[in-house]
Design goal:
- The complex is a heterodimer.
- Chain A has helices at residues 2-21, 76-84, 101-104, 130-145, 191-199, 215-218, 250-253, 263-267, 475-486, 523-546, 575-580, and strands at 25-35, 41-52, 87-96, 115-123, 157-158, 177-184, 223-233, 237-248, 261-262, 280-286, 294-296, 301-303, 306-310, 321-323, 344-351, 357-366, 372-380, 385-386, 392-395, 398-399, 404-410, 419-427, 432-440, 457-459, 463-469, 506-507, 511-513.
- Chain A is α+β, with helices and mostly antiparallel strands.
- Chain A has three domains: 35-323, no CATH class; 344-513, Mu homology domain, subdomain B (Immunoglobulin-like), CATH 2.60.40; 523-568, no CATH class.
- Chain A is globular.
- The termini of chain A are far apart.
- Chain B is of the alpha/beta class.
- Chain B has two domains: 37-58 and 414-441 and 456-642, no CATH class; 72-303 and 340-392, Aminopeptidase.
- Chain B has 20 helices and 14 strands.
- In chain B, the strands form three sheets. Chain B has a nine-stranded mixed β-sheet, with helices on both faces. Chain B has a three-stranded antiparallel β-sheet with strand order 1-12-11.
- In chain B, a hairpin with a 2-residue loop joins β11 (399-403) and β12.
- Classes of the chains: A alpha+beta, B alpha/beta.
- At the A-B interface, β15 and α11 of A face α2, α4 and β14 of B.
- Chain A: It holds the Pfam family Gpi16.
- Chain A: The chain crosses the membrane at residues 524-545.
- Chain A: It comes from Trametes coccinea (strain BRFM310).
- Chain A: Residues 477-490 have a biased composition (Polar residues).
- Chain A: This is Gpi16 subunit GPI transamidase component.
């Protein structure tokens, strides 16, 4: 008993020490729950750690030993990687599922492309090239998160600066910053990625809202993804935000088809206690527009349809629950009747059944009554090669190539570099722009096929960024396009100042492409067959080259061959033999 | 030691002969050639006999091997199924609605809208697609309904299709409705939505009509266009379709599950798919499976006997004979579909896009199975398809399914057609050689001295003399007949022909028999010193046919086998008439060949109409193949008999 009391007091003392030393580090966590109109529930966990007054490492200082790193709340494992490779800004997302923009709206975390996506801004000095540090970065992160990020190699790396602009500020180094971006759509997020993710949190999953991250439930969600975002905020410090986002389906969990949910029912856990080192810890619930629901327990605060529960003061365990008592079972909205929740809707397909060529079709629908301009980015591995001259734009079957402007294209280099296609699409109000382009499917070397070769290749999502709403052109975009030319960003800039709330990336679903695949089930047969053919060809050619042709006389007396006689060489087919051969 | 060396030397001498080894070699080659030439009739006969007997032996119970699952990822029947009476009740309720729609003669649109509303009720986005085809028989139109259940947690790059057509395949789409199949798909959609384990999107398609609706849907899905097809674009999309299951449940209940697998243009699905479904059906749900809807009379006494009545009793009760009869029935049905390039069900339309698909046909019976059994089979089969990491590629794509659990590999049936083809090749080459030589009486100096061969004077007084073989004329005749075939095809695919088939058939027959007959009068006669045109034509005709049979056999064995039967002997037996034969005899022969070539115009008008429809709507190559390849080949044989030598 005495021992236990002693331990307890030691623990409290330790906590005070932590709190005292953590003055330079702030940790905030929040969980946002948003009921969606198709009965699902979006949950977004966000864990922000701010390292006050810190700044990204200057790549020029890479030749010297780095200063010692002492963190209490800031994740050391991640901090070391950031300093080792002098990364200014970093975004890593690992997602599973297909985000349904039309019915779920814009996600709280914009990076929802299926699979893994990694992009980083790094200062470019001659000391160590950006590419070298990029390689080191992805390999370190692959080790840290147990993900196949090592596959994000040169064959997948591009620099689409127009679409992936820095979210924080870039420190005022004497040299420009460079972007590296790569996606790996076939990566699957799993428990083995969540465990290292939780280890980066100061309270792990022991307390606070991170306790809700129950792998059995969050990985059963219709959509789930984790993200790591590091950015530099000028005069504030370096911020690391770990985010987990999931779209859960309470209707599927319930036996009678109701959409009622509670933390217990969707996560099979409740918030037992707050994380002691968190400055703020809150659960927010976005209240639906309708009024037929009940929310329990009563929130601490309600602002703008957003109910907030402050956890720091909460002594008791919290289990937020939302119920629709008037509903017997959830009635799904008619998907063809309800308007899409995003400004534009995108569909992208690969048409055609041939193994040599196909047609890429992308259909962008403007759901607004005003004209929308949108950036369009396609980072395509060389497994699909565009015939850019066949790019056509249609609106209702009438060709409108003028709607595709500022087209920039970096062709792929087979077996090494992906293609980068960027364009600005002008979308007339309430209409659908259809882009088509013929593509060819190259022939791979047999060593380039992955395991499960007959599956095909996953292609990364395209990204659209609607940025200008209304008729007038956006001058900001023009300047950013000129910046694009030298691929550099030296100053902080808000990405799209006109309507920042709207400037969000929209990821299309990923695609699968069939390339001509040899039958790998019998590789030896193939090898043996080719060897036999080569041997046969070599044999006959060698024979022809080394043989000497002479005229031989063939008659009844085989002992005296006569060179002058026109004998067997001029021999001809078939029937003569019977008549001719006598003796 | 010495003795051994002597023996070896003697042996060598015996084998190699004496003197110059090159001369000995040439002599040996000549001897061999001579033997082949002498044995040619025998070789031909042997090849023909073995080839045809092989074809007849295919159904034998001694051949074939048991089916097995080759792809380890499939794991068929390894899951618990949870489809239960609640779902059966739901399916029954949908069936009631559908029956109401049927009873009040609801339009295609109404039915499609009902289906879409049901899907939307379950939370599955769904849309309709209306389509129409312009055919020579009139316009075909309809409305498909489809829903896409987006797989949770998956990227949606792969998809499985579960489909049911409004018309059942009973009587190849004779108008029987597939109401229970449609109900099954709808009930299944609601049920499958409850699970998060799907790794692939599930696409549910209720296609209108029998084959036309799915053709419109699947080709639109893949962005293929057809000049005579108008189809709405699909607003819901999913990923690459790997497998598809088509459900056909026309009766009230069913006793057996029949599996139909032949696709358009003779394509077959991977055997793993049907083996998995068959395994699940037999061992998880205890529903016996059949190849097609052939219930074995040995199992069910009420089925008509397969063996002819005149067969002696001991034979009738012989197990091997019974097995032969049942397998022969399956093979005949298979060849009938495959050779015509016809799909044996809606699944057949998927194969053209490299999708493995089969139809599960609930063979109508008074019992004992119903929605409960079918639902469980489908649930388990879909779980199996869901396990796939890559396309089905491991098992066989070329096979003859002779019995529910027995199949023949390509190696065990392909040689039959190839042997007949080879026999024709040998005959053709023999004809070619024979045409190049003539026996001239001794003493007459050879006109082509350089090429002539000296015969030994101590032999008889004749000598073999080389003669010129006309090549241009026979090739021109062949090209012209094939062009005539194209014209024939264009003619029979006109709306005029379709409208007046009863009159147009015989007229076309007479016309296309008469044209080569008239034209043959203009074929120049080769000088007597040259080989006759018919003999060279026969050589070319046989070699060309042999090439066609051999090439077709690896693409569509049934078509090759049919060609081997229809062309093998008739074309070989066509012989240039002796110059003394009267015109009437030659014309009679020509007429016989024309019946073989064009008789179908008069004798099978229904079959002709179907083939044209299949070409127009489904792009089946059978009709053009018959007109452009088969007919000209037989007409060439007819001309061989007709042309004066």
């Amino acid at each position: 008993m005495w021992w236990r009391g002693c331990w307890k007091s030691c623990f409290v003392l330790a906590l005070h020490l932590v709190a005292a030393s953590a003055q330079g580090e702030l940790f905030d966590e929040d969980l946002t729950l948003r009921p969606l109109r198709d009965g699902r529930l979006e949950a977004r966990f966000s864990f922000t750690t701010l390292l006050k007054g810190a700044s990204p490492r200057d790549p020029e200082s890479l030749r010297q030993d780095d200063e010692a790193q002492h963190y209490t709340l800031f994740p050391l494992a991640l901090g070391q990687i950031l300093r080792e490779h002098a990364v200014t800004e970093l975004h890593l997302t690992l997602n599973a599922g297909k985000w349904n923009y039309d019915h779920w709206g814009y996600p709280d975390e914009p990076g929802v492309g299926t699979g893994a996506e990694l992009w980083a801004w790094m200062g470019d000095t001659s000391l160590t090239s950006v590419d070298q540090r990029w390689q080191g970065l992805r390999q370190s992160l692959a080790g840290l998160f147990c993900a196949s990020l090592g596959h994000l190699d040169d064959q997948r790396t591009t620099s689409p600066t127009l679409t992936f602009q820095p979210e924080g500020s870039l420190p005022n180094f004497t040299y420009p910053h460079q972007l590296r971006h790569a996606t790996l759509p076939s990566e699957h997020v799993c428990t083995e990625n969540l465990t290292p993710f939780l280890k980066l949190l100061p309270c792990k999953s022991l307390s606070g809202i991170a306790h809700l991250l129950n792998p059995h439930r969050v990985f059963d969600a219709d959509w789930h993804g984790l993200g790591v975002h590091v950015r530099y905020r000028e005069r504030i410090g370096v911020e690391v935000r770990l985010a987990f986002q999931a779209v859960l389906d309470p209707v599927r969990y319930s036996h009678d088809g109701r959409r009622d949910w509670s933390l217990r029912s969707v996560f099979d856990r409740i918030v037992e206690k707050a994380c002691p080192v968190a400055r703020s810890s809150k659960v927010q619930v976005e209240l639906p527009g309708e009024t037929s629901y009940t929310l329990s327990p009563g929130p601490t605060d309600v602002v703008n349809d957003m109910a907030t529960y402050e956890l720091t003061s909460a002594q008791e365990a919290l289990d937020v629950a939302m119920k629709w008592p008037g509903e017997n079972s959830f009635v799904y909205p008619d998907t063809s009747q309800v308007p899409p929740l995003t400004d534009i809707s995108v569909r992208r397909n690969l048409k055609g059944a041939s193994q040599a060529e196909a047609r890429l079709t992308i259909e962008v629908t403007n759901n607004l009554p005003v004209q929308v301009k949108s950036g369009y980015l396609e980072t395509m591995p060389w497994h699909l090669q565009f015939y850019l001259h066949t790019l056509r734009a249609y609106i209702d079957d009438s060709q409108r190539d003028d709607l595709v402007t500022i087209l920039s294209y970096a062709p792929p280099v087979p077996h090494s570099r992906p293609a980068l296609l960027q364009a600005v699409l002008t979308l007339p109000p309430r209409s659908t722009l259809r882009l088509t382009m013929d593509v060819s499917k190259p022939f791979l070397r047999y060593t380039e096929h992955p395991p499960d070769a007959q599956r095909g290749w996953d292609l990364p999502p395209a990204v659209l960024v609607p940025f200008a709403f209304g008729e007038d052109d956006s001058p900001e975009f023009e300047t950013s396009a000129s910046h694009e030319a030298n691929s550099t960003w030296t100053q902080e800039r808000e990405p799209y100042p006109r309507r920042p709330s709207r400037a969000r990336r929209i990821y299309t679903p990923v695609m699968l492409v069939d390339l001509a695949t040899p039958d790998f089930s019998m590789p030896y047969n193939v090898i043996i067959m080719s060897c036999t053919l080569i041997a046969l060809i070599f044999g006959s050619v060698f024979n022809l080259l080394t043989r000497r042709f002479v005229v031989v006389r063939v008659d009844s007396d085989p002992a005296t061959p006569d060179v002058n006689s026109v004998g067997g060489v001029a021999d001809s087919v078939g029937g003569t033999g019977a008549a001719k051969k006598t003796s | 030691m010495n003795g051994a060396r002597n023996v070896l030397a003697k042996l060598k001498q015996k084998l190699r002969g004496q003197g110059d080894p090159s001369a000995a070699k040439i002599r040996r080659q000549r001897a061999l050639r001579e033997k082949i030439w002498k044995g040619l009739p025998f070789i031909k006969l042997l090849l023909f006999t073995v080839g045809y007997i092989w074809l007849l032996v295919l159904p034998s119970s001694q051949l074939g091997q048991g089916t097995y699952i080759d792809e380890n990822a499939l794991q068929p029947g390894q899951v618990n199924t949870y489809w239960n009476w609640g779902e059966v009740h739901h399916a029954d309720r949908i069936l009631e609605d559908l029956e109401q729609l049927r009873d009040r003669n609801a339009t295609h649109d109404e039915i499609a809208r009902y289906v879409v509303t049901e899907f939307e009720k379950y939370g599955i986005p769904a849309r309709t697609q209306s389509y129409s085809f312009d055919t020579i028989g009139g316009e075909i139109s309809g409305t498909n309904a489809y829903g896409v259940l987006q797989a949770p947690r998956a990227s949606g790059t792969e998809a499985i299709v579960i489909s049911a057509s409004w018309l059942s395949r009973t009587g190849e789409g004779d108008g029987t409705l597939n109401l229970r199949g449609v109900s099954t798909v709808l009930a299944l959609a609601k049920y499958l939505k409850k699970y998060s384990l799907w790794a692939k999107d599930l696409v549910f398609v209720i296609s209108d009509g029998y084959l036309d609706g799915m053709q419109a849907w699947i080709s639109t899905y893949h962005g293929e266009t057809q000049p005579n097809m108008r189809a709405e674009p699909l607003t819901l999309q999913s990923g690459v379709i790997w497998t598809a299951l088509n459900i056909d449940y026309p009766g009230h209940s069913f006793s057996h599950l029949g599996i139909f697998f032949e696709g358009l243009n003779g394509r077959l699905p991977n055997q793993d798919l049907m083996n998995s479904v068959s395994l699940i059906s037999r061992y998880t749900v205890h529903v016996p499976t059949l190849v097609y809807d052939h219930i074995d009379p040995r199992e069910d006494r009420s089925q008509p006997d397969l063996l002819p009545a005149w067969l002696p009793e001991p034979f009738k009760h012989n197990r091997d004979v019974q097995e032969y009869a049942s397998r022969a029935k399956n093979i005949y049905r298979h060849m009938n579909y495959q050779a015509r390039g016809a799909a044996s069900g809606v699944h057949g339309l998927f194969h053209q896009f490299r999708i493995d698909a089969i139809t599960l046909f609930a063979v109508p019976a008074t019992g004992p199975h119903g929605f409960h059994a079918l639902g469980r089979i489908l649930e388990s089969s879909l779980r199996t398809c869901n396990n796939l990491l890559e396309r089905l590629h491991a098992s066989f794509f070329f096979y003859l399914l002779v019995a529910p659990g027995t199949f023949m590999k390509i190696g065990s049936y392909l040689p039959s057609a190839i042997l007949v083809g080879t026999a024709m090749l040998f005959t053709g080459l023999g004809e070619w050689v024979k045409a190049g030589w003539t026996i001239s009486p001794a003493g007459v100096p050879s006109s082509e001295g350089v090429q002539s061969e000296k015969a030994k004077p101590k032999d008889d007084k004749r000598k073999w003399q080389r003669r010129h073989r006309p090549v241009l004329e026979p090739v021109a005749i062949m090209v012209l007949t094939h062009i005539l075939g194209v014209v024939l095809f264009l003619l029979i695919s006109t709306s005029w022909f379709a409208a007046n088939q009863k009159i147009a058939g015989p007229i076309t027959y007479i016309l296309f028999t008469a044209i080569p007959f008239m034209a043959s009068a203009f074929v120049p006669r080769a000088p007597s010193s040259h080989a006759s045109i018919p003999s060279v034509l026969k050589a070319f005709n046989l070699c060309f046919t042999s090439a066609i049979i051999s090439i077709t056999s690896v693409l569509n064995f049934s078509l090759a086998a049919t060609l081997a039967v229809f062309l093998g002997l008739p074309l070989t037996l066509a012989s240039p008439p002796p110059s003394s034969s009267p015109l009437s005899a030659r014309v009679a022969k020509y007429a016989a060949y024309s019946i073989l070539a064009l008789g179908w115009l008069v004798l099978c008008p229904e079959e002709t109409r179907k083939a044209i429809w299949n070409w127009e709507v489904l792009r089946v190559w059978f009709a053009p193949f018959v007109c452009v390849v088969y007919v000209p080949l037989v007409m060439q044989a007819g001309l061989v008999c007709l042309l004066p030598s």
